[in-house]
Amino acid sequence: MAAHPEESTASVPPPDSGFESFVRTLRPGQIALGLFEALPDVLFWIKDRQSRFIFVNRAFSELVRRKPESFLGKTDTDIFPDEIARTFLQDDQQIFETGNSLLNKMELVTRRAGGIEWRMTSKVPLFSLEGELVGTSGISRRLDQREGHPLPAPYRALSKLVNFVHDHVEQTLSVDELARQAGMSISTLERRFRSHLGTSPKRFILHAKIAASCDRLLSTPMSVGEIAESLGYHEHASFTRAFTSVMHMSPTAYRKYYSLRP
To answer: Do 133 and 99 touch, CB atoms closer than 8 A?
Structure first.
């Protein structure tokens, strides 16, 4: 679901810059927590060595519709569907194994209430005073090709296809049709999707439809059968199988589970 990240160690100001001596005069936590709490479009979080949340800012809690305090001591598997949580935890494990930062990772993130959005995510290792790796911290900002931060050049062509899929999510879409829209062969389309998004075009279409169904399950009174039909599924059973393959629960269980969450 995501592009290949760049890896590097986090940059550190030179010792003679005055940065370190100035920071030592400040009360701990003022800069990072204060600023990230105020940013409405940037997610910020801190995790411990077991990938348990220690802190999330208001934007993060609002994205997934949970109170900030409900994150404490929880991991991604307690917050997100299994498939999404697995990706996040794999990133954490990579940082723990290498001690390197994961910078500017382009990814498509499924919101809890449905829908998919582009995000640029960076994560850094956190070390104790003794030099032990004790956790990770990360930020994630939303990207939009129409306003704000533009999408990087390699993603613009795919962005048009992403928009096409979401604009036609109620239709029966095929990989052949996406290739025609992009003006490229199916093999090239497959290669670019896997290179930049970490998934196949077929799987992406499936994710788009399931994301739309998540939104309708939580925001409309439509029955599961009506939602299936509205997204181009002619059989209730095939929709349920597709939904379960992505979300690891049935549409009915998803509606019940997330409708009851605080």
So the answer is: yes
